[in-house]
Every structure is written in C-alpha cells, then in structure tokens.
C-alpha cells in the first residue's frame, strides 16, 4: 500500500500537518454568494484560525440541508449566485493560506460535466470537494476526474453506514473523511449527538486520514466536545444563521474565534 | 409542442421493462444518488422488496387487498361516442374506478404491505395532486400504520378536498413552504424528513422516481395496470394488441405500469407530459431526489419549476426508465397544454359521462389532437390509461369554465 501522506493532496497535507501539531481542526462553512461582499467572510474565517473553509455552491433542491442552509441557498440564488459567479469571486481573492473546499449537490457537477466542473474549481483555487448526494458506490465517475484535476473528493460517512462500506469510504475519501454526526439534516442542535463519538471511533479504527465531524455542531462547547472524538469540526448552520441575521465579517470572525479557542483549550 | 426525438419504428423489446441492470440502472439513468445516511435504508427496501416479490405469500396478500379493497380488476371501457367522432378506436383503462380514485393506490398498498413486513410503523409520503397522499393515508388506516404526508402549500390550496380526505383518514399533512411550494419541494422535504426517521418509518415514494430500488419497485407495483389491460385487449380487440398505448406522465408511474404490459408487443408507447412539466421531452441529464434522469434545468444547472394545471404533472423531471425508453426510441414523449387538457376533460365528460383527472386529460388531449392526423392514423386502436377521476379537480375547473 502506498503511503497516504505521500499520495495526499493539498487539503490532506495541510490538515495532517496541523493535526500533528496537536491542533483541533476547524472548517467553517458559508454559502457562496449569500451577500454582496461574501468573500470577506472567508478572510474573517482565515483570520480567526480556520484550518480549511467550506464554500457551498447553492443548489435549488438541497435534500440534505435543514432550514438555515436551505434559506441561505435560496437567498444566494435569488441574488443571482451561480457556480460560475461564485468561482469568479474566489478567483479574484488573494491567497488565504487556507485550503478551500467546495460543497454542492451532484446535479451541478453533472451539469457542466465532472471534468469541466473540476477544472473550474481548480482554476478558482479550490482544492477539495464535498458532494452530499454522491455516495461512495456512485462516485466512480467523479473520483478519477477529480484526482486528475487535483481536487480532493471527500466522502461522507454516516452513523447508519455499516462496516465494509465504512472501510471503503475511509479508503476512497480524499482530504479527510466527513463524519456526519447524526441521522438528520444540517442545522443547529442543542447537543452533540451520541452517534458522533461512536462513528468517529469506528472510522478511526480503519484509517489515519483526518476525520472531521459535521452536522449540528453549533457552539464552542459542542466543538470542544467533538474535538475530543474527531480531528476537528465543520460548523455550517451556526455560521450561516448569523450571516442571515445580518452579522458582518467582524462578528463572524469573533464567533469563529470562540470556536477556535474552544478547540485549542481541548489540547 | 415539438417532440424531441423522431418517431421510430416500434421495436418489441423483450426484457426492456424487466429488472434494472446492476446498481439500479436503466441505460445510463437511475442509480442511488442518496445521502449516505439513506443508503442503508434504500438497501433494506431493496432486499425486502426482492424477497417479498419472490414470495407467493406476499403476492397473494397484495392481490387479495387489490381485489377486496381497491376493486381490481378495473374495467376496460370502449369510449364509443368519442371514438366515432375521432375516427379511432379508443379504449380506456379505468384506474379512476379504483378505491380512492387513482392508480396511486396500487403502488401504495404494495409498499405499505412491504413496510409492515419490514416492521415499520409509519409511512412518509410526498404528494402533489393529493392522490398519492390520499392513497397513503388510506393504506395506513387499512394496515394500522401512521402516515405523514408532505405537500406544497400551493397544492394544499388547489387540492383542498384531498387535504381534508387525508386528515379524515388520520394522516398528518405537513405544509411545505419552500421553493415552488409544489411537488418538487414536497419531495425534497419528505427526503429530508426520512433521513431522521429511517429507524421506524418507510418512505413511500409515489412515482417511478427516487433512488434505486424505487423506480423499479413502483413500476412493478403498477404493472398490474398493463398486465390487466393486455389481457383485456386480447379479449376485446380484434388485433389483440392495440396500435397505441397512451398514458400521462408526471413522474411516470401510471405510464410505466401501463407500458410494462405492452413492452414486448409492437404497440407504440406514448407518454404525454404537461407542456410546463416536460421532463422527458425537454429535460436535461441531471440528478435529483436520488436518481439520475432528465430534469428541467436552467443554464446554471438549477432545477426549474414546473407549471401545470394538473398538480400531479407539476414535477420537473421524469423517472429514469422513461428517460431510457426515450433514448431507445421504444416510447415517445409528447406534450400538451393546460388548455388542451381542460378541453379534453370537458369533451370526455360530455361524450362518455366520465370526468377525468386533469392529469389523465393530458393523455386524452394528445389522442384528440392527433387522431386522424399523421401521428395517430384513422382507424388505429388506442389504449389509454385513465389514471384518475376528476373529483379533486372540480374546483379548478369551476374557476375556468
Ligand atoms: C390522477 C393522476 N394521474 C397521474 C399522475 C401522475 O403521476 P404518475 O406519472 O406517476 O402516474 C397523478 C399524480 O399525482 C395523478 O394523481
């Protein structure tokens, strides 16, 4: 077997390097195009200590998103956001020194064709990709194309994923393994689901690839707790809800910094 | 009103409407593009369906329910006065005469029985016209299950009668306020809900759409329409097999069920879509609600809203098997306008004493438009599935007429 570190792309190398210093990883999410100056949020995330940033490319029919991210997507689309425009906005940004990971539904990948889609991500400086409605057994069409374009396709694992399948997801995932903390959609929750720890432990038994926990992680306390199980966290709805409520980049920098501190205290 | 593909010579394709290929594929369409959290649930449905479908006990129980509760077999009715006027021989397969008033009940009873076999206590469903919701509420009541039905706000307004029926049957009707507030959004919401409810609930999808095994399973539960009609045509028609087999297409379940009975015959298969919801005729390759098929999309790859006077045809896509049949040239997909459908509904009422569902009126509108013309030569025999009755649409029609 090849050494995964040597085979790893930019996202995985970056996350591994940070993890190996003992740092809990933090990947905040924002919906691309949600406000006119939305790329300022990315700068704020980087300044607050994000280790990677997830940028959602809005889709009309997000079947795995709860109300907050659905609303963010509709807001962005109503403002005229599209994959093309969001990637153009990203291309115009100075380098943040933090890998960008796009996330979207498979229809948008197929629309341009996997090859053109990945090439466009690459040109915009995106390194990774998450497609929540592309489970591992359907991913063949995209995996090689993405790899050839230098895009790391991260696969999702869920609490309902049985053993042999989990092993396949862990080994075929690139960048990191996205552990979905609970059986449900994205959205803020009052507590970290019990299934989160269990799933992370199961993934870790099979791989040394970074494991990021996402879905429902809303507060610094939850981030700290999640950081005890996984290598890091993805925080989506809690960030996006603030944006929808009118919070500016500075407010978001302050919020992400509280998550950062919570993860750091854990060490 | 143009058709995308030319009319090819019909090829009787044995096995065309058999089991899908590996990974639930019909040609390049189908598949299981579901969130990872739902993949296990889909696999369970797949395993349970395969086992049940091979089990004479299950088949027998379903056949009994269909006979005792639904009123199957449904008749084949010659539309005598209309046939004479049109110059073709038109036969109607009367799914409007089923209990609850549409073909949806065939599939729902199959899935509800499967759900009980799997130990599920609750059915989740989406509905547009409300017919699938009513069928689900009915099956749940009959088998002692709970039912939660997602329905777009807009459809709740225009299908108030069916909303009342569902509630009377004990189902919970959940209004969906996102997007176009119609079937597409109700389906998204039902899927989101299913992600959190796989432990005790079965998602009872109402058409030949969704992740594998749904398109195949729903077609198998609906093939009773085609199988019965095939036997009835053999007995009634001098030719044995009709020249044309016509059905309306929303997601495509009544059409798939009807076509399945004739796939291995020379009959020409015609699916009729709403002008504003023509997934098969105008859609582009995409992935929505768990399957790869043809969907109406804008230039950015966003799914566009369908518009049809018939809530059941207000879906921007079509089931994957229809996309495949289209590519093969085995079936042809055409469109008619709202006005044509309304005109056809009135004409059927006045000539045959039957008020059809507006969805079914689309199929009839094509027959009326093309009869005696190039696409439907004079003297042809036509089997048309009347997928449902028009009671639910009377308030819509009252506004227009
Ligand atoms: C009476 C009737 N016909 C047809 C349809 C369209 O569905 P399908 O294409 O799955 O048969 C519906 C859907 O609600 C319906 O109620």
Task: Provide a descriptive summary of the structure in words.
Chain B: Residues 71-388 form the Tryptophan synthase beta chain-like PALP domain. The complex is a heterodimer of chains A (267) and B (401). With 267 residues, chain A is α/β, with parallel strands linked by helices. Chain A has a single domain, classed as TIM Barrel (Alpha-Beta Barrel), CATH 3.20.20. Chain A has 13 helices and 9 strands. A 9-stranded parallel β-sheet of chain A has the order 5-4-3-2-1-9-8-7-6. The radius of gyration of chain A is 17 Å and the shape is globular. The model of chain A is unreliable at 1-6 (pLDDT under 50). With 401 residues, chain B is of the alpha/beta class. Chain B has 15 helices and 15 strands. Chain B has helices at residues 36-53, 56-70, 80-86, 104-117, 131-143, 153-158, 160-168, 183-195, 214-236, 253-260, 279-282, 320-328, 338-352, 358-370, 394-400, and strands spanning 25-26, 29-30, 76-78, 89-94, 122-127, 146-152, 172-176, 201-203, 244-248, 268-274, 284-288, 291-295, 317-318, 331-336, 381-386. In chain B, helix 4 (104-117) runs parallel beside helix 5 and helix 4 crosses helix 9 (214-236). Chain B is globular. At the A-B interface, helix 4, helix 6 and strand 6 of A face helix 1, helix 8 and strand 11 of B. Bound molecules: pyridoxal-5'-phosphate. The site of pyridoxal-5'-phosphate has 22 residues of chain B, from helix 5, helix 10 and helix 14. Pyridoxal-5'-phosphate is lined by residues 102, 104, 128-129, 131-132, 207, 248-255, 312-313, 357, 359-360, 387-388 of chain B.
CATH topology of chain A: TIM Barrel
Mean pLDDT of chain A: 96
The whole-angstrom Rg of chain A is: 17 Å
| Architecture per CATH nomenclature, i.e. the level-2 architecture of the largest domain in chain B | 3-Layer(aba) Sandwich
- Apparent shape of chain B: globular
Beta-strand level of the residues of chain B, as a percent range?
15-25%
Please, how many helices of chain B? 15
Oligomer: heterodimer
Specify Rg of chain B, calculated over alpha carbons.
19 Å
Mean pLDDT of chain B: 95
How many strand elements of chain A? 9
Which chain pair shows the most residues in contact?
A-B, 42 and 37 residues
- Topology as H/E string of chain B? EEHHEHEHEHEHHEHEHEHEHEEEHEHHEH
CATH topology of the largest domain in chain B: Rossmann fold
Helicity range of the residues of chain B?
A: 40-55%
User: What is the overall shape of chain A?
Assistant: globular
Share in helix of chain A = 40-55%
Q: Mind summarizing the main beta sheet of chain B? A: 6 strands, mixed
The CATH superfamily of chain A turns out to be Aldolase class I
Pathway (chain A): Amino-acid biosynthesis; L-tryptophan biosynthesis; L-tryptophan from chorismate: step 5/5
Catalytic activity (chain A): (1S,2R)-1-C-(indol-3-yl)glycerol 3-phosphate + L-serine = D-glyceraldehyde 3-phosphate + L-tryptophan + H2O
Keywords (chain A): Amino-acid biosynthesis, Aromatic amino acid biosynthesis, Lyase, Tryptophan biosynthesis
Enzyme class (chain A): lyase
């Amino acid at each position: 077997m090849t050494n995964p570190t040597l085979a790893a792309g930019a996202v995985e190398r970056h996350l591994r390097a940070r993890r190996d210093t003992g740092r809990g990883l933090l990947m905040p999410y924002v919906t691309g195009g949600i406000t006119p100056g939305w790329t300022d949020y990315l700068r704020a995330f980087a300044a607050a200590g994000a280790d990677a940033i997830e940028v959602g490319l809005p889709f009309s029919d997000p079947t795995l998103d709860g109300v907050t991210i659905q609303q963010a997507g509709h807001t962005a689309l109503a403002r005229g956001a599209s994959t093309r425009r969001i990637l153009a906005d990203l291309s115009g940004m100075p380098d943040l020194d933090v890998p960008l990971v796009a996330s979207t539904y498979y229809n948008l990948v197929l629309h341009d064709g996997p090859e053109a889609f990945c090439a466009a991500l690459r040109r915009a400086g995106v390194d990774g990709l998450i497609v929540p409605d592309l489970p591992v057994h359907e991913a063949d069409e995209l995996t090689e194309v993405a790899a050839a374009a230098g895009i790391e396709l991260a696969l999702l694992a869920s609490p309902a994923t049985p053993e042999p399948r989990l092993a396949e997801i862990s080994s075929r995932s690139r960048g990191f393994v996205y552990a979905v903390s609970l059986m449900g959609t994205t959205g803020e929750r009052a507590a970290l689901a019990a299934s989160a720890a269990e799933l992370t432990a199961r993934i870790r038994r099979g791989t040394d690839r970074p494991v990021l926990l996402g879905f429902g992680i809303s507060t610094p306390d939850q981030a700290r707790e999640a950081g005890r199980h996984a290598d890091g966290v993805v925080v989506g709805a809690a960030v996006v809800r603030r944006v929808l409520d009118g919070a500016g980049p500075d407010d978001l920098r302050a919020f992400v910094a509280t998550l950062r501190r919570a993860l750091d205290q854990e060490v | 009103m143009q058709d995308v593909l030319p009319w090819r010579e019909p090829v009787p394709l044995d096995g065309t409407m058999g089991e899908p290929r590996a990974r639930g594929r019909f040609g390049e369409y189908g598949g299981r593009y579901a969130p990872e959290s739902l993949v296990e649930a889909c696999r369970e449905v797949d395993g349970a369906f395969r086992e049940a479908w091979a089990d004479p006990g299950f088949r027998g129980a379903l056949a009994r329910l269909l006979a005792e509760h639904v009123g199957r077999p449904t008749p084949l009715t010659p539309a005598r006065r209309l046939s004479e006027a049109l110059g073709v021989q038109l036969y109607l397969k009367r799914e409007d005469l089923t209990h609850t008033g549409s073909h949806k009940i065939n599939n729902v009873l199959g899935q509800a029985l499967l759900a009980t076999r799997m130990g599920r206590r609750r059915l989740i469903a989406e509905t547009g016209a409300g017919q699938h919701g009513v069928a689900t509420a009915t099956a749940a009541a009959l088998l002692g299950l709970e039912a939660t039905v997602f329905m777009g706000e807009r459809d709740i307004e225009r299908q108030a009668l069916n909303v009342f029926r569902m509630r009377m049957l004990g189902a919970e009707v959940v209004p969906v306020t996102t997007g176009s507030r119609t079937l597409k959004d109700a389906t998204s919401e039902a899927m989101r809900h299913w992600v959190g409810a796989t432990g005790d609930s079965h998602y009872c999808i109402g058409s030949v759409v969704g992740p594998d095994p749904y398109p195949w399973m729903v077609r198998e539960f609906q093939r009773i329409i085609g199988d019965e009609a095939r036997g009835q045509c053999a007995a009634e028609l001098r030719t044995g097999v009709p020249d044309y087999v016509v059905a309306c297409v929303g997601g495509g379940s009544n059409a798939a069920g009807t076509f399945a009975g004739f796939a291995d015959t020379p009959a020409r298969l015609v699916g009729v879509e709403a002008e504003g919801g023509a997934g098969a005729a105008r859609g582009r390759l995409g992935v929505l609600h768990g399957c790869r098929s043809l969907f109406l999309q804008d230039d950015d790859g966003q799914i566009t809203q369908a518009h049809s006077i018939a809530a059941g045809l207000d879906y921007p896509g079509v089931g994957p098997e229809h996309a495949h049949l289209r590519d093969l040239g085995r079936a042809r997909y055409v469109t008619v306008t709202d006005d044509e459908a309304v005109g056809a509904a009135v004409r059927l009422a006045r000539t045959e004493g039957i008020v059809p569902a507006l969805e079914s009126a689309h199929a009839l509108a094509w027959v009326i438009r093309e009869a005696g013309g190039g696409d439907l030569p004079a003297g042809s025999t036509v089997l048309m599935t009347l997928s449902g009755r028009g009671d639910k649409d009377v308030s819509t029609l009252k506004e227009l007429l």
